[in-house]
Specification:
By secondary structure, the chain is α+β, with helices and mostly antiparallel strands. It has three domains: 59 residues; 151 residues, no CATH class; 63 residues, no CATH class. Helices cover 41% and strands 15% of the residues. The chain is elongated, with a radius of gyration of 30 Å.
């Protein structure tokens, strides 16, 4: 015995029938065209999940059977070619991305904090849109640290203000390695509750961000959140151009608010005027001088601008 095998007979028949439709499932026949790769890249940057991408591509082709690739091929292409793999290269790619953004727009701002071993510790960035919004709506700001959606489980902090429509608006954001307890007491918040603003922004973040995102992908997906938020503001601006809400009283104060405020904010102010109209008044006497007095209900105090 030499330890070698010799073929003595070959059986060419198969134990199961051949199906030509299955030929596309063999690895040798599966491929992604350049057009499909471009579509995958665009969808990935928009924060669309691989399963949704594959479903959309299959629908466009008339069904999965007409595709020359599988959902696994889509996932592999994303992980191998589109996303930065490795904790060491990810921060470097993030720095390159921020530097390019700064070159495109000098108003883009970022800070990256590293420890003595050059490991990423904290990141902060704000694009030109956010910085412009800060100039108008930065008088009252909430700083939310409750959203943790990235592969490093770093707390994602958003600086959130309120725009002229009463909507939450993004003013900047950060990724922190550690978080300290950011507590305010006996402060005037202009009717803004931190939890309320946080929840409204989380619903926007959930459309684009996910727990498997690398740093660079996370930043790109976050940019779509800003664009989404800006689009909603433009829609509210367009709605205001269609007309104004009529006053419910002859008060010159209400008329002034009607001219200066957006419809969203004026509705809240007008609600106070409606409540004021329901107040009962009577003549009271104090220190020998008659004066009108409220018997109950809300009061509105105002002063000239």
């Amino acid at each position: 015995m030499t330890g070698q095998w010799r073929i003595s007979r070959v059986e060419v028949s198969h134990s199961h029938p051949l199906n030509p439709k299955l030929s596309g499932m063999f690895s040798a026949n599966r491929q992604l065209s350049m057009h499909v790769k471009d579509l995958i890249q665009q969808n990935d940057q928009a924060g669309i999940r691989p399963s949704k991408m594959y479903q959309a591509l299959a629908n466009a082709a008339g069904g999965p059977a007409n595709l020359t690739f599988t959902e696994k091929d889509v996932r592999n292409y994303i992980s191998r070619h589109l996303r930065i793999s490795g904790d060491k290269t990810d921060p470097k790619e993030l720095l390159k991305h921020f530097s390019r953004m700064k070159e495109l727009n000098p108003n883009f701002f970022f800070e990256i904090d590293v420890d003595e071993n050059h490991n990423l510790r904290n990141v902060f960035w704000a694009d030109a849109r956010c910085r412009a919004a800060w100039e108008y709506f930065g008088d009252v700001v909430t700083f939310d640290t409750t959203y943790k959606t990235n592969r490093y489980d770093m707390p994602f902090e958003s600086f959130v203000g309120v725009n002229h429509h009463g909507m939450s608006t993004l003013l900047g954001c950060a990724l922190l390695r550690n978080e300290d307890t950011l507590f305010f007491k006996d402060k005037f918040w202009v009717g803004m509750r931190s939890t309320q603003r946080s929840e409204s922004m989380h619903s926007v973040f959930d459309k684009y961000l996910n727990s498997k995102s690398f740093l660079l992908q996370f930043v790109r997906q976050y940019q779509h959140c800003i664009i989404d938020n800006e689009q909603k503001e433009l829609e509210c601006d367009a709605a205001d151009l269609r007309g104004i809400i009529p006053c419910v009283s002859s008060s010159p104060i209400e008329k002034q608010f009607q001219k200066k405020y957006t419809n969203s904010i004026f509705r809240d102010v007008q609600d106070q005027f409606i409540k004021k109209a329901d107040c009962n008044t009577e003549i009271g006497v104090s220190d020998g001088e008659a004066r009108p007095a409220y018997s109950g209900g809300p009061k509105i105090l105002a002063r000239p601008a």
